Amino acid sequence: MKKLILLIVLCVSSLSHAQVLNARSFNELVGRIEKADFTYKETGKIFGFISTQSCLFLSEDIAIFKNYCFPVRKYPARGYTIITRESGIVDLYEEDVGNFLIRDIKIDEFPIYLVPYLQESLPTYTLSDLSGILEQLYPRYLPGCWSTNFSKYSEAAEASCHSTLPVIGFDSWATETQAIVNDDAQWMDLMNRIEAKLKR
Question: 130-133 long-range contacts, Cβ below 8 Å, gap at least 24?
């Protein structure tokens, strides 16, 4: 009977914990990237990109796709997809639309949804493995958050989430990311710091 009660308590605790989403500090994630040692793994097409290929770089606990990596040429856009158990899937994206540079930071998948798909240590995953995870998660339309210097809907800077669940830490995350996407120097510094870690 005690074992049954303990099992019920653990199940209820697990369910209640799963009802809270956590927007981890973006600056903390960048700090972890800067301290990590990355190894180039491979180049290939990943889910969501039709005509360009991405380069995969792995550390002990961080995977980064450098998107628009191949063919090597000048693109009007660049971006990185960062995968960690602690922060989930975070996308950085910029696009030159002529006289303006759109800059986005997004939490595409929260850790509680991503972690069940990561059964092995990150260095064991191939580009195809991680692309498959992105493809499996995409049609589930899970909660996410974004921070941009220009929303196509409001035509203004914006930080928000689409979620029916509370997002713990969102205000701090939004403050951090809005400061970056709305400042040319901070954004360029961020992109250069990440790029410096991804050497082939």
Answer: 130/46, 130/56, 130/63, 130/65, 130/83, 131/44, 131/45, 131/46, 131/47, 132/47
User: What type of residue sits at position 99?
Assistant: N
pTM of the model: 0.88
Q: How remote is the C-alpha of 70 from its chain's centroid?
A: 20
| Contact in structure between 37 and 59 (CB atoms under 8 Å) | yes
Residue spans of the domains in the chain: they are: 22-197
Contacts of 154-163 with CB under 8 Å at 24 or more apart are 157/181, 157/182, 161/23, 163/21
Measured in whole angstroms, the distance separating CA 112 from the mean position of its chain's CA atoms is 13
Supply the pLDDT for residue 20. Answer: 83
Q: Which of 38, 71, 36, 28 minimizes the C-alpha distance to 53?
A: 71
Instruction: Give the end-to-end CA distance of the chain in Å, rounded to a whole number.
Output: 58
Distances (CA, A) of 114 to 49, 76, 144: 20, 30, 12
Q: Is the CA virtual torsion 161, 90, 151, 54 positive or negative?
A: negative
Alpha helices in 36-169 (DSSP H): 111-114, 127-137
pLDDT of residue 140: 94
In this predicted structure, the answer to whether residue 11 has a pLDDT above a threshold of 80 is no
